Fold this protein.
Amino acid sequence: MNKINNIHYICINYIHLPANIKNTEIAYIKGVGPKRAEAFEKLGLKYASELIAVYPRMYLKSITLRSLAKYHEQNIIFKGKVIDKYLPFKQNHPTRIVIFDGTASIESLLWGNAKFREKQFKIGEEYIFWGKTSFNAYDRSIKLEIRDHKKYDDTDEELMKYPNIPVYILSEELKKTWIRPLTLTKIIFNAIKLSLENINEVLSEPVRIENELLDHKS
């Protein structure tokens, strides 16, 4: 645990997993591969079953843009399509993108290299966005700061059906392999799916209902 703490990779607690869980190596989980598997192994994580014991740093509420005003100063997640973008006239100004999710649209400012941002988001393509909301009292509007994103694919539909999506703290080792927060969320989600039938439910039904949690088999 000292090694893990030294590289600021927290929340790894080993739980008692059933002995019959098939130990698929992390390298064979979709989205990992050899290089990323090496980074995980430096953290003491070699098998898919071990990723189940990595605890989230927080949960993101899965929402629609129409309901955005209800989540003031909160971290949220949603699927949306980039329908327009505006490059800055000056180098130190942000790129602006317009996102539509089928219920409403919102404009978000993206700081950083404009040429990179222009390539990063393509009009007509869908992404999963992690954002932080805020309220601008001057013009009385909702602002969305994008914290992370990943390009949406058909396999994300199963993940996005859940009302609360976990995100995890990233170690420097994982960052070196271009793993971002939502990438790690998807990798761990894929690991959980591999071991789903062997995970025992430990929470009572009243606790799950009160906290809006699905059972392990859902």
